[in-house]
Design a protein that fits this description.
Layout (H helix, E strand, L loop, with lengths): L1 H19 L13 E2 L7 E2 L7 E5 H7 L4 H5 L5 E3 L9 E3 L7 E5 L2 E2 L21 E6 L3 H4 L6 E6 L12 E10 L4 E12 L2 E12 L3 E5 L3 H11 L10 E3 L5 E13 L3 E15 L24 E16 L5 E18 L5 E20 L2 E17 L8 E15 L4 E16 L3 E17 L4 E12 L3 H5 L1 E4 L4 E4 L7 E13 L3 E25 L2 E24 L7 E15 L12 E9 L3 E10 L15 E11 L11 E7 L23 E9 L1
Parallel strand pairs: 6-9, 26-29
Antiparallel strand pairs: 1-2, 3-8, 4-5, 6-7, 8-9, 10-11, 10-35, 11-12, 12-15, 13-14, 15-16, 16-17, 17-18, 18-19, 19-20, 20-21, 21-22, 22-23, 23-24, 24-27, 25-26, 27-28, 28-29, 29-30, 30-31, 31-32, 32-33, 33-34, 34-35
Length: 691
Amino acid sequence: MKYLFAAVAVAPLIAGMAHAHAQAEDEVRIEQPVIVTLPGLQRTAGELVSNVAALDRKEIVESLASTLGDTLDRQPGVASTSFGQGASRPVLRGLGAERVQVLTNGIGVIDVSAASPDHQVATDGIDAQKVEILRGPAALVYGGQAIGGVVNVIDGLIMEDLPKRTFGGEAYAAGNSVNDGTEGGVRVQAVGGPLVLTLTASQRNFDDYDFPGIAESDRLHALEEAEEGEAHEEEAHSSGTLENSFVDTQTYAGGLSWIGETAFLGLAVRRAESQYGLPGSSHEHDEEEHEGEEDNEEALPFIDMEQTRYDLRGGISVDNGFLTNLTVSASQADYTHTEFEGPGEPGTVFVSDGFEGRVEVGHVLGPVQGEFGIQYADTSLDAIGDEAFIAATDTTSFGVFLYESEDWDNGLGIEGGIRAEQVDLDNRDNGSVSFDLFSASAGVHRHWESGWFLGAQVAWAERAPNSSELFADGPHLATVQYEIGDSTLGKERGLNLEGTIRWESETASFGVNLFHTDFADFIYLGPTGAVQDDLPVFTFRQQDAQFTGGEAFAEYQLLEGPFKADWKFDAGLDFVRAEFDDGSNVPYVPPVTLNAGAEADWGALALGAKLTWAADQDSPGTGQLETDGYVTADLHADLDIARYGFGRQGTKLFIEARNVTDEEVRPATSVLKDIVPLPGRNIRAGIRYLF
């Protein structure tokens, strides 16, 4: 409850300071990004009840990390599962994995990243033009797997409008000190009549990264010493460079679009390849199996991931008095994920093939505007090898949804929708199960010319258990657990209440979002106390749970302030409390986190700083250790070399120092938090060149 009061108090305080220094209306305008991920008419973030955000290409490059989750984890209400440099997924309001839908251009990524924290998301944002984040239930549009929210990575390979330039593009390159790593990418776009050709390529090559302190947390070290009754082996105290934390990725993509006056059609192909180590891995080799191999102890496990994805998207504008537009999207992907015990020693292989298609029809009936949609998906997953913990499973889903909204001249607006969905899972060893799902939402908002916005929303969402939750049966060495599914699990249901209050002027804005979600039959992994294959046994089970939290955020711009610079200040606070009905805590929930930043811009030169404060997580789930809070500071400088004739507007040299104080950071949302800390101090320098 104390965090609730903190959220309510912080944002008005910051906003009051901004309001006291507000400038004239013609000086500057805080731009609100247009959100395309939601149904209906495209609206800005400030016009929506839900707390949404969007990062443009400039912001993506500035915050780019080795994984999608780590790139986004400083956004309010967003954390990361963090599995070294190779894999992470976004966590939204304490919910992750199977409850957060990661999309590429509005269609699922079609990979197996939700099945395990060591599985990389097939898109990491390195070639993205925009990333949209929807916090809270989005099951109405995207199905039950979006019960916790959506992250939509938009790559811009298929264009809906003709670019203003007939030829142009972007190239960027950067180096990193913490891992002796390089990263870079290029994007080229050419226009010929109604045709637009877009080509992209990117690479990332990071060695093992440096970290402060020791790999093993103090709490885990003390626990192991107590259990062993003697000093713990020095090997577990390794420090300096995190062994087997490398990552090497390449992406190649191309898209061809035809754009007419009232219609568009495009086809895109994307190839992603990645190899990355599994730091802190407990993969052990059978001594008898490898007897006589002198280098057995040096073999380290790593993952080789490949995906080829095909996207087709088209749309037409209609004006017949009722229908307004029709959009059709379809994606097919082939995905392979191979876990190697060492060079030339393939272990478990995950193979997934999937198709997903959507049809969306916009309409208007008097003052009411809305959208009708159909979604179909068919995905197969098979795991092959001694450590495969799930048999071949085919999952199909079919859903229909309807969304309507109406706005009046007095600033009052209402919105709502319903969705019906059927999900079928067919497992080779356990047979078939089927789920009928229903989702609905309703919201009301009011905005005033003075800049105030007030909104409330209620949403009911249902999620079917995924294949791992239903059918897992085997060792899962990424989590150091033997996991057993339950084919009798029922659907998970959530009732979400959310309220928002925001204010915006020409130079300042602030807002507070508060939410509460009651989950019925929340699915989670719980320990049994048994041991199998030298691993503790965990089973998937269900229990009611409650999530309560919020986000407070503020932004202020000041022209010609101190030192004759244009200044920008921003801050965001987020918190979530998650408990089961039996009084225990839901595991892997982020602590209270505050992010704040300041930037001074002189036109040619910009200097900035970012600060992150995270509280102790002293309410971990059963079997989890507490995590210490931390404070990190980042510094950055940008030089606008376009002013000197190099490239077109937006071309910059940049240098930044991340985690300046070399702070030890262990995210509470990571299964590796007690054996794998985050990277230490990193100097990142590079260029973003636009032509």
